[in-house]
Amino acid sequence: MPFSHTKVVGPAGRFGARYGMGVRRKVTQIEVKQRGKHRCPRCRALTRMERIAFGIWRCPKCGFTFAGGAWVPQTTLGKTMTPEELRLIELEKQKWREKVKKKEKV
Ligand SMILES: [Zn+2]
């Protein structure tokens, strides 16, 4: 990843100071989730989905192609995340922040 100016909001930092903290936090959640693993609607494998096109995803395990959210295989908007998912997101965000912090010290 190239040099980053962002500290707090993760990937959503590219929006700068715009759109407000709440929105950027949300974007970060979505984007972190996007990079994570998702459950295939057919074989139920928890795996990293391949994004073929905008909103079209494929499971690398069974080759099942399906339409999903534009950003994530499963639409997260309007869906409440399970505590497990939220914990995963927090973990990812923390990792990301540590990476950024290390880079900034150099
Ligand atoms: Zn599958």
Number of helices: 2
Question: Roughly how many Å apart are the termini?
Answer: 15 Å
Helix content: 25-40%
Return the domain count.
1
> Would you tell me the structural class of the helices and strands?
alpha+beta
Level-1 CATH class name: Mainly Beta
Task: Work out the strand percent.
Answer: 5-15%
Low-confidence stretches: none
Shape: elongated
List the strand order in the largest sheet.
3-4-5
What string gives the helices and strands in order?
HEEEEEH
Radius of gyration: 15 Å
Largest sheet geometry = 3 strands, antiparallel
Hetero ligands: zinc ion
Average pLDDT confidence is 70
CATH fold type: N-terminal domain of TfIIb
Specify the CATH architecture. Answer: Single Sheet
The counted number of beta strands is: 5
In words, what does this structure look like?
- The strands form 2 sheets. The chain has a 3-stranded antiparallel sheet, with no helix packed on it. Strands 1-2 form a two-stranded antiparallel ribbon.
- It has 2 helices and 5 strands.
- The protein has helices spanning 21-35, 83-105; strands spanning 38-39, 46-47, 50-53, 56-58, 65-67.
- It has one domain: N-terminal domain of TfIIb (Single Sheet).
- The chain is an alpha+beta fold and 106 residues long.
- Bound molecules: zinc ion.
- Zinc ion (ZN) binds at residues 40, 42-43, 45, 59, 61-62, 64.
